[in-house]
């Protein structure tokens, strides 16, 4: 009774619209003939269609291949220093600078393993004088490593504060000190600077 003429005309046009198959374009005012699916139902249907094309065995095989490819990329990045594929602990300009800072200088700590072997051999010889020398060498080596680590940490912290004032530097000094304990040729990522070269 109170409906407008425009609404009546639209309703009549919708009723008169012929039912056609899905290949023909539907009249914009004609009823759809089915309810609109909920978003969750539509998403689950899309997922099921995407997942049905691959069996569990194929999915596991694909995952293994992807993991193997990622590990290979990471291995190559550790050798070349490519930032994109490095592990999370090695990424970023702060960590890169810390690595370069350590790699560009001589560190007493990196010679710890060879010195430890020499001292161990001396301590095993059953000569009192050599055993006393081995014990003294242990003390000297430990004191030198501690002093060198303090100097390295102090200088690195100063450089980091100057170069990366607004960035997160947490853990960078400890990261550099751990690297300084490794022999240069065994360090990963591989050193990208020469000794004496300014980072």
From TrEMBL:
Residues annotated as coiled-coil are: none
- Presence of keyword Membrane: yes
Q: Where are the stretches annotated Disordered?
A: 1-76
Taxonomically, the superkingdom here is Bacteria
List where the protein spans the membrane. 106-129, 135-154
Per UniProt, the ranges with Polar residues bias are: 41-54
Key words of the record: Membrane, Transmembrane, Transmembrane helix
Point to the regions of Basic and acidic residues compositional bias. 1-13, 55-76
Q: Which Pfam families match?
A: DUF3043
The family database entries (InterPro entries) matched by this protein are listed as: DUF3043
UniProt entry tagged with the keyword Magnesium: no
Protein name (record): DUF3043 domain-containing protein
Organism, by scientific name, is Streptomyces tuirus
